[in-house]
Amino acid sequence: MKRREFFRKSMGAGVAAGAALTFGSIDNLFGRAPLPYSPADLVAVKGGSPGQMFDLGIEALGGIEKFVKPNQTVVVKPNIGWDRSPEQGANTNPLLVKRIVEHCIKAGAKKVLVFDHTCDVWTKTYKNSGIEKAVKDAGGKIVPGNTAGYYHAVNIPKGVKLTSARVHELILESDVFINVPVLKHHSSSRLTASMKNLMGIVWDRRFWHRNDLQQCIADFATYERKPDLNVIDAYNVMMRNGPQGVSVSDVVNMKTQILTTDMVAADAAAAKFFGSNPSDVPHIRKANEMGVGEMDLEKLSIKRIMI
Amino acid sequence: MKYTSLKKLRIVISLLFFVLITLVFIDYRNILPEKFARGVLYLQFIPSLIKFINVLSISVVGFIVVLILTLLFGRVYCSSICPLGVFMDIVSFISRKLKKKKRFRYKEPHNLLRYFLLTVTIIFFVSGSIYFILLLDPYSNFGRIITYFAEPVVILVNNDVAGLLENLNVYTIFPVEVRTMRFELWIYPVLFLILVTWMSFIDGRLFCNTICPVGTLLGLLSRFSLFKIRFDEENCTLCGHCTRVCKSDCLDFKTQMVDYSRCVECFNCLPVCPSDAIKYTHKKTGDHNTGDTMIKVNSLQTDYDKNKRKLIALLLSVLAGGTLSSFGQNTDEEYKDSTVPEEKEFPVSPPGSLSIRNFTHNCTACALCVSACPSNVLLPSFKEYGLTGMMQPHMDYHAGYCNYECIRCSEVCPTGAILPVPEEEKKRIQTGIAKFVKDNCIVHTEKTDCGACSEHCPTKAVKMVPYEGDLLTPYEGDLLIPEVTDDICVGCGACEFACPTTPYKAIYIDGNLIHEIAKEPEEKELEKPVGEEEFPF
């Protein structure tokens, strides 16, 4: 077992290094460089279907081409944590995931890969969330995320409690990383959106729970490989009993979407839907203090689109 | 050689059953529909018998079909339908390939042992203990052999292939977790596998005619079966070809006698007869022959009488102990004595098993549910149900938790130890109740947020409430701590599995002796949220 793991790890690392050498690094440099002109820091869309809202939202952010260049590899990370149906709002809306994959492919992406380190049995959550089918229909590839071998150790130098973690290889290898959380109430972290969704790209989550969960969420948000784009799905929002919900009575059809490159700003805006101040949510406050992003919505240029 | 095709048919049917049953047990990705498993296992004698007694339904009459088949054609069950029997044929085949000159010869049956084991098994079963069936049933043992030994090997190969494909970005074959079990659980299956392999390696179907209670039982019946292997004395040249290939050692060419209690209808003897002196037919082939067989049966009877006294003595001694132990098992108190980590009073039996008692009385530990469980939470127990329950599966919440929407184990269980439950009903079955240990909890000891238990709880029986006592910490009275609402807890163990404390969990499930129905979680109207109509920022 150990020998096998070592074998796979070294092969994985080799391929990753090879990929980085051949085409990754140069593309990455251009792909992630900030553009001189940014239409808005944060775009909020309301009143349409998940796909429709993404069409308008991404256009307002400068178009998908700003994020995905031809021939790049894209990894999309929705929340597929629970074995629940789409209307229960426990997972990212499959229609949104589908539309994002379609946009990426249209922009010329070589590959669009989708995964989550699920909580419930992953084969069931992938299927019953509707996301597996949505990704396949859109021409993307759904990838498993529930085996330790896929995760490789990285350092988080700015972390207070969490100074290293094992991160899924697709995050480490892909050129573009799109974070697509669903907005939910959360019994542990108060709410879950962009930053909390990143718990699904690491292996040992128990460590976070043991060692000051709120601090660990903020710590991991300082990790250098941040999402290139965050799209918060607030179409069906679970207002209580999160993160799984007990029934559809926990869900409000909010028909909203938030798009931004700044995780802290995204989550700060999301907190408002729960009637909370961003600073009431400890991990948003901490991430703001650590300089991950801006939680003061007054300081941001926000574009609001009402359909 | 007109019987060649009959033997070939037997081989084809037996390999078919063997392969299909093995596939059912090895299906680690749950690709095969549950109906397939049910269909393939329909004729397995012991599971069908137990389920019949358990549910009294005419939809489970597989064992009656087997009894009828036996009365018509002899022990075809043993030769073709029993997967362990086919396994032994394969071992025996290999053994003869290795030693070309290996020949079978007629041997006397081990009557004392086989009738003793059958009697003990029946007495235990009638007095409410499935223990000897669990130990000796060929189907259940085969299931364990596949689940314990073969499936992990297949999974390891799968994982190696997946590892290679992963580097090519192909994910259709993906790694699967290998179950980990404590080593004591391997002892019996390993010993059994060695015994069966050794017995079949040296002497064909010796196990089936000496130890297997199903074989012995069907052997009592097959004396009266319509179709039999019969000698035609007039044609017989006493060449002995038939005896040499008889893997049950039950055919004596010198006296032209077949011990029908041991013949498994493998038909090996038929095509090798050069003089057409041996037939598989319902017609008696002559007075003399019948008489001979009768004589032989009588002599078996004498053997039996000779052994009777010994047998009774043996039985009595075992009975005393057996009855005592089965009394012990029948009372519910025994489980209270079990000491397991986290001070659980009772283990958790899977949803659909109604009660621990019903489960332990009907489960033959074939491990099909273990193999089918997608969460790997159903694992063979060690001491959880007491020593006689060893290998009967229990919910091991350190290994996983019961998926809220999943009913796979109840769909595949062939004995009815886990009865089929509709998905909606299963969600309310309370197999146990969560117990919270505040002094272990991160929120209390570390004064930080955790809530992993509540997060994983599908009914919010574990909910987070304000924690008093953290005013002097950085979180200043802002922390939440779990609280359990017993009557909506279903005992799925998600909280226990998710709890990050070590070595003892701060929340664990204590099993219900008798499963209860949990209340529906309350549904309150939601307050109108701020952001429904317009942007809240």
Keywords:
heterodimer, A: 307 residues, Rossmann fold, two-stranded antiparallel sheet, 11 helices, 12 strands, disordered N terminus, B: mainly alpha, Alpha-Beta Plaits, two-stranded antiparallel ribbon, 22 helices, 10 strands
List the SSEs and their pairings.
The complex is a heterodimer of chains A (307) and B (537).
Chain A: H1 2-32, E1 42-46, H2 50-60, E2 73-78, H3 94-106, E3 111-114, H4 122-128, H5 131-138, E4 141-142, E5 151-155, E6 164-168, H6 169-173, E7 176-180, E8 182-186, E9 190-192, H7 194-197, H8 205-210, H9 213-221, E10 229-238, E11 251-260, H10 263-272, H11 282-289, E12 302-306
Parallel strand pairs in A: 1-12, 2-3, 2-7, 3-4, 7-10, 8-10
Antiparallel strand pairs in A: 1-11, 5-6, 8-9, 10-11
Helix pairs in contact in A: 2-3, 3-5, 9-11
Chain B: H1 4-26, H2 34-40, H3 45-55, H4 62-73, H5 76-81, H6 83-98, H7 111-126, H8 131-136, H9 138-166, H10 184-203, H11 213-222, E1 228-231, H12 241-245, E2 251-252, E3 257-258, H13 269-272, E4 278-281, H14 287-330, H15 334-337, H16 356-362, H17 368-372, E5 378-380, E6 393-395, H18 408-412, H19 423-426, E7 429-436, H20 442-446, H21 452-456, E8 462-466, E9 480-484, H22 494-498, E10 507-517
Antiparallel strand pairs in B: 1-4, 2-3, 5-6, 7-10, 8-9
Helix pairs in contact in B: 1-6, 1-9, 3-4, 6-10, 7-11, 7-14, 9-10
Protein model, in words:
The complex is a heterodimer of chains A (307) and B (537). With 307 residues, chain A is of the alpha/beta class. Chain A has a single domain (35-306), classed as LarA, N-terminal domain (Rossmann fold), CATH 3.40.50.11440. Chain A is 36% helix and 21% strand. In chain A, the strands form 2 sheets. In chain A, strands 1, 2, 3, 4, 7, 8, 9, 10, 11 and 12 form a 10-stranded mixed beta sheet that branches. In chain A, strands 5-6 form a two-stranded antiparallel sheet. The longest helix of chain A has 31 residues, at 2-32. Chain A is globular. Residues 1-37 of chain A have low confidence and may be disordered. Chain B is mainly alpha-helical and 537 residues long. Chain B has 2 domains: 4-90 and 103-309, no CATH class; 429-520, Alpha-Beta Plaits, CATH 3.30.70.20. Chain B has 22 helices and 10 strands. Chain B has helices at residues 4-26, 34-40, 45-55, 62-73, 76-81, 83-98, 111-126, 131-136, 138-166, 184-203, 213-222, 241-245, 269-272, 287-330, 334-337, 356-362, 368-372, 408-412, 423-426, 442-446, 452-456, 494-498; strands spanning 228-231, 251-252, 257-258, 278-281, 378-380, 393-395, 429-436, 462-466, 480-484, 507-517. In chain B, the strands form 5 sheets. Chain B has a two-stranded antiparallel ribbon with strand order 1-4. A two-stranded antiparallel sheet of chain B has the order 2-3. In chain B, strands 5-6 form a two-stranded antiparallel ribbon. Classes of the chains: A alpha/beta (307), B mainly alpha (537). The interface between A and B is large, with 62 and 53 residues.
